[in-house]
Amino acid sequence: RYFHLCKLPGRVMGIRLLRFTSVVIIVLLLVAGALTALLPNIKDDKLPNLRREPKPQSQSALDSFTLIMQTYNRTDLLLKLLNHYQAIPNLHKVIVVWNNIGEKTPEEMWNSLGPHPVPVVFKVQSVNRMRNRLQNFPELETKAVLMMDDDTLVSAHDLAFAFSVWQQFPEHIVGFVPRKHISTPSGVYSYGSFELQNPGFGNGDQYSMVLIGAAFFHTGYLEDFQRQPEAVYALIDETQNCDDIAMNFLVAKHTGKPSGVFVKPVDIRNLEKDTNSGYSGMWHRAEHLLQRSYCVNKLVNIYDGMPLKYSNIMISQFGFPNYANHKNKM
Amino acid sequence: RYFHLCKLPGRVMGIRLLRFTSVVIIVLLLVAGALTALLPNIKDDKLPNLRREPKPQSQSALDSFTLIMQTYNRTDLLLKLLNHYQAIPNLHKVIVVWNNIGEKTPEEMWNSLGPHPVPVVFKVQSVNRMRNRLQNFPELETKAVLMMDDDTLVSAHDLAFAFSVWQQFPEHIVGFVPRKHISTPSGVYSYGSFELQNPGFGNGDQYSMVLIGAAFFHTGYLEDFQRQPEAVYALIDETQNCDDIAMNFLVAKHTGKPSGVFVKPVDIRNLEKDTNSGYSGMWHRAEHLLQRSYCVNKLVNIYDGMPLKYSNIMISQFGFPNYANHKNKM
Questions:
Q1: Spatial CA neighbour of A226 closest among A41, A44, A43, A50
Q2: Which structural domain range is residue B97 located in?
Q3: For the Glycosyl transferase domain, which residue ranges apply (chains A, B) (predicted)?
Q4: 3-state class of B97 per DSSP?
Q5: Which residues of B are designated catalytic?
Q6: Which residues from A are below 8 Å from B320, CB to CB?
């Protein structure tokens, strides 16, 4: 009997202690779990995770940008523009997306005319696709991309200023060509510019897209673009158009804000009339604008909603080119 | 001997279990403590804590602003401007800071000419001080303040647009009058506008202040202003000037960014020539600008450093007043 009684207190005490401490431990684990859920999501600018970090030794990669220029059938314009753009301040590297299938790139000639201020990489494509320029090129080391059409000349002043604006708005597409969509009573959207009716938010006009053919945006969005629904790629391939509208949808969805910030260019020119190739660019096709309205509606279907938002902010450079471009009657 | 052995296992087991679970509990508490430290600091726009929350029933107080107009010896202009400003969209209330010491306010006449779109409060002052307008008035219910000089007429379009811009940049002074400081080799600062040399950051000009005599800013900064070094109040009282420079110092220190965002006004007018009072405003004093340079240097002393930062962002309204004010040669 004594034997029983000896063991009992130990076991009982042990069991009670065990129960008590188990409860305490479980409570603490639940608290810890709750706290972990409250931790901020460690993400820098609410931007997509960059798989590629800039190399630590190239400090410049953080304060510079990569120019991506896709080219088709206008090599004379390409080379003229490369001479101009290769010297833009804060340019880190140029990536030429070579859509001239089967044709040799001008790399040899380029090298023979060196040295050049920055490296230029010719990316030979296997199929002539509009969305080739939206690949997540391994050569990208900078946080920013400057994307330019191969017939668009923007002054260095404009580009330097717009880059500084992008650095203040890194989650937006900061560029020189604003466009908008409007809604109609039937629910069908239409795409256009100033010629369309204002969306009706107060006076003045609004824009809901900034075209990527002359704009800065975060490199992370190229990575993000690789993860879109297949139907988006099919749409762009079907129309050979609308990759820029798709990018605006992507950015607007990601930020919940207007996708673009419009910087009013002082000097922007279209050089297509200067080409010897006789090729005049996709936007001359009769169906070009109708296609873009079509794309807006298709993308709304694909993304199950209209993510584009309106903005009426127009940014210019203070005191440039006129040193007092802000003076008034006061 | 058996007796001893009976008790022993219980005690030993109990002690070991106790030790083990104590260690586990301590570890969990440390983990919980670490997680708590990582929790985000719950603060809205990095703005000073607003003691005054807008009354829950006035939803409009969140999307509207309070006009604060200080007035001295220009009651005719005041009343003309009140007729204009009382109808601005999103205006919640007007606070008139009555610096005409010993003189009756026009409140009776104002009431006899009612009803009015918004309440107007006349705050009688005991001393004619420039910084009277920077009090933390208990009548303030909105997050935003619009501060206007009593001789400045800004169009409703400009104000409506600038308010929408402020809502996107709530920690900045968003207004229509940009100014800058420049540094000289001697280390002495000078105050001015476009007539001064550019600070030399790239091409174009820069501004480092936006004057509060025609600007929106967060109500919390008025509260913040009450907590400045005594020397700041002494400086403003001594010069009857520079309260706006002091506010820009305050905001720049608080944000670590340029204090202001400049919105280019379409229609801003100075009405002082229209007054019957013959009073022409402080800025006509011979020493006015020299005083302001003096203030910049004094404030750098008081704050032990120069917190003002430069910006060259100039914001205009897209498509207003010209529906295609963004068109270019493209």
A1: A50
A2: 65-315
A3: 65-320
A4: strand
A5: 244
A6: 203-205, 312
